[in-house]
Design a protein that fits this description.
Elements (H helix, E strand, L loop, with lengths): L9 H16 L6 H8 L3 H7 L3 H12 L10 H17 L7 H9 L7 H23 L5 H22 L3 H16 L15
Helix pairs in contact: 1-2, 1-4, 4-7, 5-7, 5-8, 5-9, 6-7, 7-8, 8-9
Amino acid sequence: MASPPPKQTMKERILETADKLFYLQGIRAIGVDTIAAEIGISKRTLYNHFPSKDALIEAYLQHRFVQPRPSDKPPAEQILATFDSLERRFSAKDFRGCPFVNAVAELGPEDEDRTFRNIAIAFKESRRVWFRDLLQQLGVADAEGLATQLTLLVDGSIAQDLVRDDPAMARAAREAARVLLANAGVKVAGSADKKRSG
């Protein structure tokens, strides 16, 4: 018999609530009063765990900063699977774009010490390096340049989906990534017309 999941600490409850509200409604739109009320705690209790809204925003962005899961799939499949994952994410009703881009767009002028921008840069760079490392495994000559291009395809497809509300933008980006990989000498299976489940 499986043991019940561990009970959340108050800090975890605050962060989970902030994560949901910040992502779905916007960081500027949500104050600490709203977060505290949603949980049913006082602002003082919230501030005992996060001394300021900025500290909570920073924790929210760090919480969203997750690394891709290790995979035994061939590198080219891992790269293309990124776009399949995006398509699934775009189809979700709660998809509101990249939380890091959203944070920089909302808070840029207020982020005087660049705390939030630096977290966003670190996240975007970690994704680019992940692409680069896979491309190096494939023996791509300009792995750095192609990794940057793939990162642009990811971000571009997110922007297009937000504007158009069309998960097919991820499929278009996947096909562009497949072409870029093939042009770099990587053997890739099929094209966009190949039927894929999902």
